[in-house]
Amino acid sequence: MANHSRHVLHQLRELINRDPDRFSANIYTRMFAIDPDLRELFPAVMSGQRDAFFRVIDHVLDVIPQADGHPELVEFLAQLGRDHRKFGVRPEHYGVIYRALIAEFASLLGDYWDDETAQTVTQAMMLTTGVMRGAAETAPFPALWSAEVVEKFRITRDLAVVRLLSKAPLRFAPGQYLEVQIPQRPKAWRSLSPAIPPNPRGELEFHVRGVQGGTVSCAIVGETRVGDVWHFAQGHGTLHIEPDRPVVMVAGGSGLAPLRALLIEMSKRADTPPTHIFYGMRYPGELYDLVVLRRIAATNPWLRITAVSEETTDPWWITAVATPEALGIEHHIGTLADVAAAAGPWDEHQVLIAGSAKMIEATRRRMLIAGARASLIQHDPVV
Hints:
Elements: H1 3-18, H2 20-34, H3 47-63, H4 71-83, H5 93-109, H6 115-138, E1 145-156, E2 159-165, E3 177-181, E4 190-192, E5 203-209, H7 215-223, E6 229-236, E7 247-252, H8 256-266, E8 275-281, H9 290-298, E9 303-309, H10 324-327, E10 330-333, H11 336-342, E11 350-354, H12 357-369, E12 377-378
Parallel strand pairs: 7-8, 7-11, 8-9, 9-10, 11-12
Antiparallel strand pairs: 1-2, 1-6, 2-5, 3-4, 3-6
Helix pairs in contact: 1-3, 1-6, 2-3, 2-5, 4-6, 5-6, 11-12
């Protein structure tokens, strides 16, 4: 790429980073002015949508000048194109997005918008919208599938287990997460990890904690009822197990779900490597799935379980299903990051981490200090 083109894209990136929300809001305003019907595809509150849109464009402007070919960028944009089908975005809408982007970039650059600059920007945005459109048009599977809630029960006041049945084939891998929309919050999509691997019976299970300020998670815990129909889009994530290397898993709270699905799948195989899972919560009584983990370990000697809690006793509102001690499970007091790291060394292990963004970052840092190789640490994107 010529120096002038690199300079233009770098300058654009600096301009949109001065006020990301205003940039995204201007784009959507232009889009809705070109095609007012597009507004119906998006939720009433669009702050999250605007932030996601900005991050995509910022990433495009950052990557394109770096090298020729852009295979990773092309795959990233293709996945976005396939994902956006769930919003009802049709191929013709990408022309609207392209026009809005070009108009906004021309406005931002002002007097610097000449023929050479216009060519650079239009090529970058044609790549962006063209790849997304092409991927959407050639996607091999339907944009959406659905499942019906057949059981829901509360574990604690802010944690629920939801089980569903789907008549459609389950197209995800153990350890992946799915984009989910519930009837109580239409147009709001959230990512949830199934706690069991896909099976031919169409069974799904999710463990959902109501996060403070989380409209979807709190609605699931408080409002989901048997008979509700949930809609699902694409599966994401790459958590997986290599059979030739020992495994350490670190699961914080409901982050246990994807690792539990992997453990169930691993129990069906003959080449499963030695695996040590650290499962932690703030209070010992919140370790709701120790019974299931103990059941898996009882018939699979390759699995070792360590329970972790930050507190030694439970508050009055928690009634423990079973304590670690009653189940014969090793129990440590402390943070997951500290307890798991101290049990190393982990330099020969593949490390899988699942939980909150804060927990993932803390655990990854401590495991690296404990000798784990960065190339062998897996976790889903930290948002």
